[in-house]
Amino acid sequence: MADDNTQGRIPTVIADDVHIVYRVNGGAGGRGSATAALSRIMKRGKGDAPGVRKVHAVRGVSFTSYRGEAIGLIGTNGSGKSTLLRAIAGLLPTEQGKVYTDGQPSLLGVNAALMNDLTGERNVILGGLAMGMTREQIRDRYQSIVDFSGINEKGDFITLPMRTYSSGMAARLRFSIAAAKDHDVLMIDEALATGDRKFQIRSEQRIRELRKEAGTVFLVSHSNKSIRDTCDRVLWLEKGELLMDGPTDEVLKAYEKETGR
Amino acid sequence: MSDTTHDGAVATSAPPSPDDGLTPAELAAKYGLSVSGARPGLIEYVRQLWGRRHFILAFSQAKLTAQYSQAKLGQLWQVATPLLNALVYFLIFGLILEADRGMAREVYVPFLVTGVFVFTFTQSSVMAGVRSISGNLGLVRALHFPRASLPISFALQQLQQLLFSMIVLLVVAVAFGSYPSLSWLLVLPALALQFVFNIGLALIMARLGSKTPDLAQLMPFVMRTWMYASGVMFSIPAMLADKDLPGWVTDVLQWNPAAVYMDLIRFGLIDGYGSGNLPPHVWAVGLGWALLVGAAGFVYFWKAEERYGRG
Question: Does the keyword Transport belong to this entry (chain A) (predicted)?
Answer without folding.
Answer: yes
